[in-house]
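Holo model, zinc ion. Inputs:
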Amino acid sequence: MILLFAFIGILLALLAICVFRAVRQTNIQSPESEVSVSRLRDILQKGQSATTVGLPENFDRRTAQYAAGLRSLLQAETVSSVQSEISEKFDRFHQVMAETFPLLHKNCEKYDFDGSLLFHWKGKSAQNPILLMNHLDVVEAVGAWKHAPFAGEIADGRIYGRGALDDKGPLYVMYQAVEELLAEGFVPPCDVYLASSCTEEIGGTGAGKTAKWLQEKGIRLRFLLDEGGMLVDRPMTGVDGIYAMIGVLEKGIGNVKFIAKSSGGHASAPPNNTPLVRLGRLMSALEDNYPFRMELPRPLLEMLRRLTPNVPFAFRLVTANLWLFQPLLKVLVTKVPMLAAMSRTTVAFTTAKGSDGYNVLPQEAFVTANIRYSHHQAVEETHRILHDFAKKYDIETEILNAEEPAPVVDYGSAEFRLVEETIQTVYPGVQVSPYVMTGGTDARFYKDLTASALRFAPLYITADQLARVHGVDESLFIYTLAFGVDFYKKLLERL
Ligand SMILES: [Zn+2]
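Output:
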């Protein structure tokens, strides 16, 4: 009986601690910050404000100029294709860039790697250079667009077009900031490299060529800033506030082929366990009994900690008490594909082949899987697990290609804080959080050149706009452009 009371007592005490910690997190969010965020929303979505949040200088004039500049980039179509990485359309885009950013072209050394560009802006010192990067290619624009995808139409305070968010908007504000600093006679304290590949969307070789060139020159980067997160309004269901999400962790990427063999034969008298059946069993078993370990990465836990003041109380009870609820969270995370992908190696079956005839049993059939390697089970361990798993179904594995995960950036580092503080100077009231990328970016090609690959573009978007990246009616609020230009200018001034 005493034991039972003691047990209940401990439970009640734990509950009280959890509630106390969750309630305390509520108070962190002051009413003033709520007011400043809603005013910021008014500016960024509608361009208006009666405000305590300062507008960038000459806001209206600059917004009109920047929207026109971005429009000309959107009108120069740059859909990349695996069939041919090299295309004349990139030359035309370079021409538009030369017209839009004349001082950049006049003052910086320009290198062209089959359409992928690199600019070298000499600073006061060649020590500890940095790299700012993005890509100039886009994915194709299929589906029914309300606004033509390569017209750069402006409506309701937004500019529409394929690439508005991914990645010509970020590209525009980056080069425009350099252009304005050059006009002011600014010389950066260190060398600055600016790169725009033309093969990002096809996982091509553009960024790899650029990285190799830098490596051959013996260049080691203090940090790089590439696409990845943005300033997202209400980044997840139930999460209020505007969060600048900085990608700090990118998984490895590769492809594995699973091959099942047999002696073939006619389909009229089939034996059991033919190659396609074995492959089917393998795929089904792998989905039902995922062989990879779930481990919540530190940046994911830090992200949950930083989101805590803005999530509903029931969630806050969990996220404010991760010391107690981490095991439970590990189970919950498996139910949300996006969070699961952040926490373990994933396997996605993508292509398949059997025999060439409807009535012929295949002598050899295969499926391929796209693999994203977690840091805690990287390339070698993942391949061993897949090989052993496949063996049970009499299936061989062949590694088609594999890249190790990039180093995880420390969100306590000076480089992360530099970006974080710059964001908060330009966008007052916005909160900053590290996050785990599930997709791959060009930054991975630079993993031997720097341990600090930060993935963030300083533009404001809503969750709906985020969902339209690679979809129809991709758009960007034109009022965020001046803030984006100011971010890059301030970042370069603070180096
Ligand atoms: Zn992109």
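DSSP finds 16 helices and 17 strands in the chain. The chain has a mean pLDDT of 92.
Archived with the compound record.
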